[in-house]
Amino acid sequence: MSDNINYDKYNYFCYIGVFPNKDYEAESLILDTQTAIMLERFYYNPHRLKSEVNAAITHFLLETINKDRVPGFAIQEACWDRSLGMLNHPQLKRMELAITDINSWNKEKIIIHSQSNGIPYSDFVIREKITFTETLIPHLKSNPMLVGSYAIILKIHLMNYKKSKVDKFKLFREFTDFINYRVGIFHAVEFSLAVHYFLGNSKQNDIVQSLLKFGSKDPLGAILTSCWDLFFLRLLQLNYLRDDWGMVRPKLVSRDDALINLAKYSSIHGLVELNETPMPIVSFDYEGLDARTSSFLEELHNEIRRVAIIRNVTNSEDIGKKVEQITEAARELEEELISIVKQRG
To answer: How far apart are CA 24 and CA 127, in angstroms?
Structure first.
């Protein structure tokens, strides 16, 4: 197993680091959404958890009692209510109460609680189940960190319908032109997913399918979930090197198999300065590619770098205008994807 992937002794929580060939002691722990949800369940109903799950969560809390646990983004995803187009505030109140209280416990309190019937909570939390999403554009205004991923993953979903009909190199050229010229951004992890799926081997193909959930009856909802997974991985990588959120030597704690599998193939190998802004050099394991495909990719990487430099020098747009440009592209892709899904019934 890669050195950046380590499970606890119960094989329940996975600690994801950023480097491919070295481990480190984390001081900050970014909690993914599934992890935060399990902590909430432990808080209110530890007695209803399977014994091995209770033991794993208890062990996690004891082992990380002196760590900086970072649950905020997990809470944002967990409590975002697509039926409301906003945070579900009763759910937010319930979850924040649980995780804030847990973070104040000492070891004795953790152990006693694990053997108890939990903390009573009388307020109701109601969420409407969404089975099909027509658009997520309004939701992106409150989640701007997902906009780039959303547009790119929409494009990958649409390209999937052409995969068996169009030459793979021609199809991937279409993808590269889209990120270079239509949205004008480069997200390394999303690019890697496209490489794995359209140019990689069957094992890599399966990893991408598990993350992006092609064929979902609610494709936009599935894409939103995928965007959050990618966000957590990018958050980890950027904050290890840039410390934007006050995190120190962070790791990501995850229960998401698709995210964990992706992290095995994505790691940081260095740092470059772009306009005095430190940016990580993210590398990907493109094992098994033939010589022609590798050469094709190298040409594309060189082109992407050239376009990025030109864009960085000449682009005077502010962030707001860039977000509008990407959002408009996403709106068009949404309409195209939903039209295809409805036609196919």
So the answer is: 40
How high does pLDDT run on average in the chain? 89
- The candidate with the shortest Cα–Cα distance to 277, out of 251, 244, 315, 311, is 244
Residue 131, CB half-sphere, CA atoms under 13 Å: how many? 0
Q: What's the predicted TM-score (pTM) here?
A: 0.90
* Residue in this structure with the two tokens 């992407």, named with its chain if needed: 304
Distance CA 40, CA 289 (A): 43
DSSP 8-state code for residue 327? H
**How far is residue 122 from each of residues 36, 94, 101, 102, 119, measured CA to CA in Å?**
20, 10, 17, 19, 10
Across the range 117-136, mean pLDDT stands at 92
Every domain of the chain and the residues it spans: 137-216+267-344
CA distance 262 to 266: 6
> Given this model, what pLDDT does residue 274 score?
46
Coil vs helix vs strand at 20: coil
Distance of alpha carbon 70 from alpha carbon 246, whole angstroms: 10
Q: Among the residues of the chain, which ranges form H helices? A: 33-44, 51-63, 72-79, 89-102, 107-114, 137-140, 147-160, 168-177, 188-199, 202-212, 219-242, 257-264, 291-314, 319-344
